[in-house]
Specification:
Number of strands: 21
Oligomer: single chain
Helix content: 40-55%
CATH topology of the largest domain: Rossmann fold
């Protein structure tokens, strides 16, 4: 029976707002009639007082039935949320009771009913008390029913001050968390009830956590010294429960731009489950080896370094052109190494410097090269064709040739889905980089060359995630180039793991791709990010919502749809069911020499159009978009 009652109360709480308002209005009107009858019967000392003047009393009660809904609606009493009843709401109920008492006086005078002077005042007090009590009881019953029917986590609150009481009051309205007691080191509070919860000293915490089956301890000490908060958190963590801290008011005000906006995790935007790439081949391939990551300070390069640390490497070479990026990843890895025993060696250098690359490979006796260094931002490379070709094409050739000369065991090139039938210079240069590696692989006797191709990496410096997040934090608009643009997405850990697996599965000249599910529309990603951040998408038809989505038009070289394969008929399986090996067309050695010679001449002559001519001639599927305009510094790039 109790379970049925709990279910009914929960269903009632989830009923449409209009239904709950009408129910409250009906109950309040019934309470007015009951209160009037009770007061009159008590004052006249006669339960059958109607018999003294039936017409007058009937008219008196009818007037209250008519007046009560009007007064309550005028004062918006039915609109007061049950769970948020506070001072203003209580004042409205008191005012409604007072007005009804005055109406009762006027009605009694006009109807000439036998109405003692004390009755209107007693009626108003009784109506107010019962109406208020009804709401308090309803909140308690519904909250208890929700806790009984739902999967509620029980929490203890450390700190019975103002912040703790406010937190407890807020948690009572939530079904996910239920506060059960306070803990406070103030002896004056021990044994008291604060906000309906008992207060215990810290020395009793261990026993109370077990007795009440508490899941979390929430630290409600926003103004306490950070060192003290950390010490308390460390002590509580040792008791086997999770500890969470309430931020200080200063922190909230200082970071007011992020209030109400939750940072969205990349995996929430995939539209598919993350791929499990935790396979033993990775550790077997890299254990005891010396690995070098080019572009070690970039999004993919840095994640490769983090994952390689756990593979039992002998030595990890961080090769990076940017001094600051190299310093940042080196310091991070030193701090996170945690006794893994991997020797970390930072090396500054450019992939275009053949002698520098060869010296590092030879001096450090590198076994595996993971080539992540590249220019990858489509709009930037579109306007800087020469530097894009220098680094992405010739730089890749330089590192690959140096790896072969140093007898490196494995070489893995990080590529992109934009290399497939590209419409932009960045994608075309990455396709020529793939062809350069395939050409060298065709003659290599010692080094196993491979390439791994994947889609947009959520969370990387060039992805939509940081761009959209910044736009949401500033109140929008969120800019999308075209409503029909779709992309394949993966997380940074997935991308890095795929690269490591490619090195493990490589047999020479392979192109690996990940089965990434269905492509996702960028505009859907924008909508989901806005909603997950706690905001609403603006609807121009209704005028409702917080963040606008603005269509800016396709950028030069941008495709509506990306592909992962040039020819999906030449696919082979690998030991991992989500990873496929593609066999694709490659250029001959003579043709590649012609490509390199033309690129070198174009770079030497500083001729961007010559770079584009080489791309049009040799990249399969490339079609030249309209030549981009050179933008000023103030031009804004939208995030797709």
């Amino acid at each position: 029976m109790f379970s049925k009652l709990s279910g009914f109360l929960v269903a009632l709480a989830e009923a449409p707002r209009q239904v709950k308002r009408r129910l409250l209005l009906g109950l309040d009107t019934l309470i007015a009639l009951i209160s009037l009858y009770f007061v009159l019967a008590l004052r006249l000392e006669d339960l059958a007082f109607f018999g003294q003047a039936p017409w007058q009393y009937a008219a008196l009660f009818a007037s209250m039935v008519f007046a009560t809904p009007i007064v309550l609606i005028a004062l918006q009493v039915p609109l007061i949320k049950l769970a948020a009843l506070e001072g203003k709401g209580t004042s409205r109920i008191a005012l409604a009771a007072s007005l009804l008492g005055m109406i009762l006086i006027v009605a009694g005078f006009l109807l000439q009913a036998l109405l003692p002077r004390s009755v209107p005042f007693a009626f108003a007090a009784t109506f107010f008390a019962i109406t208020l009590l009804k709401r308090i009881v309803a909140v308690q019953l519904i909250t208890n029913a929700a806790h009984r029917n739902g999967t509620t986590d029980r929490v203890a609150i450390f700190g019975a001050g103002t912040a703790g009481m406010q937190l407890a009051a807020s948690l009572r309205q939530a079904r996910e968390l239920r506060p059960v007691f306070f803990v406070d080191d103030d002896p004056k509070l021990h044994g008291l009830m604060v906000g309906g919860l008992p207060v215990f000293p810290p020395k009793l915490l261990a026993g109370k956590l077990e007795h009440h089956q508490v899941n979390y301890v929430l630290l409600a000490m926003p103004s306490a010294d950070p060192h003290r908060v950390k010490a308390i958190a460390d002590d509580i963590s040792g008791l086997g429960v999770e500890v969470r801290s309430l931020p200080s008011y200063v922190d909230i005000i200082a970071n007011d731009e992020s209030i109400g906006v939750r940072t969205v995790a990349p995996e929430e935007l995939l539209g598919r489950a993350t791929v499990d790439l935790d396979v033993p081949e990775i550790a077997d391939t890299y254990a005891g080896r010396v690995a070098m990551v080019t572009g070690a300070g970039g999004s993919i390069g840095s994640e490769l370094c983090r994952q390689l640390i756990d593979c039992g490497l002998k030595k990890l070479i961080l090769f990076e052109h940017s001094e600051f990026a190299l310093y940042s990843i080196f310091e991070e890895l030193l701090e996170d190494d945690k006794g893994a025993g991997v020797e970390l060696i930072p090396r500054l250098g450019s992939v275009n410097d053949r002698h520098r690359v060869e010296d590092v490979l030879t001096d450090e006796e590198v076994d595996v090269v993971l080539h992540a260094a590249a220019y990858k931002h489509v709009p930037m490379v579109e306007q800087n064709e020469i530097e894009g070709a220098r680094t992405n094409i010739l730089g890749t050739r330089t590192v690959a040739q140096a790896a072969e000369a140093a007898a490196v065991e494995r070489f893995v090139l990080i590529s992109t889905d934009k290399a497939v039938r590209p419409t932009n210079v960045m994608g075309a240069t990455k396709r020529l980089a793939e062809l350069a590696v395939q050409d060298i692989a065709s003659r290599s006797m010692k080094t196993k060359f491979s390439m791994v191709r994947f889609g947009n990496v959520l969370g990387s410096s060039g992805s939509v995630l940081p761009v959209f997040q910044r736009q949401i934090l500033t109140g929008g608009p969120v800019t999308v180039t075209d409503p029909e643009v779709t992309r394949f997405f993966m997380t940074i850990p997935e991308a890095a793991r795929l690269v490591l697996l490619a090195g493990a599965y490589s047999s020479g000249g392979d192109v690996f791709v990940l089965d990434m599910g269905e492509p996702v529309r960028i505009i859907d990603v924008a909508r989901r990010m806005i909603e997950l951040s706690g905001r609403r998408v603006y609807d121009p038809k209704t005028g409702c919502g917080d963040i606008r989505i603005e269509i800016t038009g396709l950028r030069p070289g941008e495709k509506r749809y990306e592909e992962l394969l040039i020819n999906d008929r030449n696919l082979c399986e690998t030991p991992h069911h989500k990873i496929l090996r593609a066999q694709e067309h490659m250029l001959s050695e003579v043709e590649m020499q012609m490509v390199f010679r033309a690129i070198e001449n174009a770079i030497e002559a500083q001729e961007p159009n010559a770079i584009r001519n080489v791309i049009e001639t040799w990249v399969d599927g490339y079609h030249c978009p309209q030549q981009p305009k050179r933008h000023s510094i103030g031009s804004r790039l939208s995030g797709t």
